[in-house]
Structure prediction request, 260 residues.
Amino acid sequence: MGMNCVGETRPNSGWLQRNSTSTPVMAPDLRTPRSATWDIAYDHRLSTKWAVHLAAIDRRGSHELVVDPITSGPSSQLLLESTGRSRYREIEVGTHFTQGSVADFNVSYVRSQARADLNAFTTFFDSIRAPVLGPTAWAPARADVPNRLFARGRVLPTKRWLVVGVMDWRTGLPYSIVNGSLDYVGLRNTQRFPTYFRLDLGVSHRFRIGKFEPWIGIRADNALNSPLPSDVQANTASPAYGSFYNSEFRQFRIQIRFER
Prediction:
């Protein structure tokens, strides 16, 4: 099974028959999962106000527990083995601007790649009572986000007014297409959710109430009411195929904060 073959499946694996009783089988040579990670970072202050940040990380996992459906005639087995692999690579570039207590801003861009064997044991036997399993595959991991731009900042226009904001833009998460029989259509995790864009904003004012001076303000989560779906109808047999659901809508919150 080649490291660079996206969507590769094992030749002795097959779809678990939906109406058959599968027998759990444990490989006799299970090994303890392990990972090897290295990272490097460099920070440099250009001036009293500006600083830059560079970082890289590489993580490789091996001997991870995966479940593979093995079919042989009318019988089927769920084979638990420790042949799973995973890999994560990331490069980050960021900058930081500060002007004492008046303003503070951070902006970072991350380019990353996450690959894994998709039939991880915990994925199917954690919260799913009766999972339907297909052949395991080396493909983009479910948390693969190739591009991400993240920014946050705060500014004090006056001593009694505070404005804060957080912006998060990133590539949509991957998912797989299935047909009416729940067989995968094409390679695994080659489709993606819409691009994720979220903006949170907040404004606070410092009031004097007796001997107290609390910060009282309002915060808007997902201020632009951007579509942020967490589910997709990926079954080609469904009339709603391709529809995205369960978006996080805009929310307003009142905040009260006390400081000594």
Observations:
- Residues 1-20 have pLDDT under 50 and may be disordered.
